Amino acid sequence: METVIQIKDLKKDYNSVQKKVEVLKGINLTVKEGEFISIMGPSGSGKSTLLYLMGGLETPTEGTIHINNENLSRMNDNKQSVLRSNIIGYVFQFYNLVEHLNVEDNILLPVLINGGKKKDFLERLIELLTTVGLLDKRKSYPRELSGGEQQRVSIARSLINSPLIILADEPIGNLDSKSGKGIMELFKDINKTLGTTIIQVTHSHESAQYGNRIVNVKDGILV
């Protein structure tokens, strides 16, 4: 399998008025294409920071992150924008749906923001609506959906540009156990059938078991 993410000696500090806080203290991690990795650790361990650094949403203090053999820190703004639009899809604990857009327009939002045309993605849209089980809800608005359904919309949106990697931060943190299980089954199916590399941050041991590898972070290091 090809390496899609290579992290070497990664450190992240935050400076406050009173002191420097070391969040990550030298992380080394290799992620292979098609893996489903669960990152676990207590609150404040640095696991979400690690995820955001992988996605280019934050900048490391030291160390390197290579995505698809390219050094993230050496990418210009345009390349990082392409990375966030086409290589990586994001799923967050809060669904971040646009309330005045219906389901299909929320899913197509990354395409429209990048100047794409809706008609060119209709086949992909139908495919994703079918995958996440929301074909009959395509004209519904977020307020008309359950939490689990809203997260399914978020997942479909993350897949619209056929990304190589999905980064998910506590994706079932706001859901009841039944809805959460459905979302994790969906992630597992996407990983298996589409071959999409998935990296999730989770507090849940049960959710972590859906991955094929568990990475534990404690006090800013891998343990």
Put simply, the count of helices is 7
What integer value in Å does the Rg equal? 17 Å
What about the largest sheet? 6 strands, mixed
Counted up, domains total: 1
Mass-distribution shape: globular
CATH C-level label: Alpha Beta
The CATH homologous superfamily name equals P-loop containing nucleotide triphosphate hydrolases
Biggest sheet strand line-up: 6-7-8-3-9-10
What is the helical fraction, as a range of percent?
25-40%
CATH topology (level 3) name: Rossmann fold
Classify the beta-strand content into a percent band: 25-35%
Beta strand count: 10
Distance between the termini: 24 Å
> What structural class do helix, strand and pairing data support?
alpha/beta
Mean pLDDT: 92
Walk me through this protein's architecture:
34% of the residues lie in helices and 27% in strands. The chain starts with a strand and ends with a strand. It has helices at residues 47-54, 77-87, 103-113, 122-131, 147-159, 177-194, 205-208, and strands spanning 3-15, 20-32, 36-40, 62-67, 70-71, 88-91, 165-169, 197-201, 213-218, 221-222. The strands form 2 sheets. It has a 6-stranded mixed β-sheet, with helices on both faces. A 4-stranded antiparallel β-sheet has the order 2-1-4-5, with helices on one face. The protein has a single domain, classed as 3-Layer(aba) Sandwich (Rossmann fold). Strand 7 (165-169), helix 6 (177-194) and strand 8 (197-201) form a beta-alpha-beta unit. By secondary structure, the chain is an alpha/beta fold. The mean pLDDT is 92.
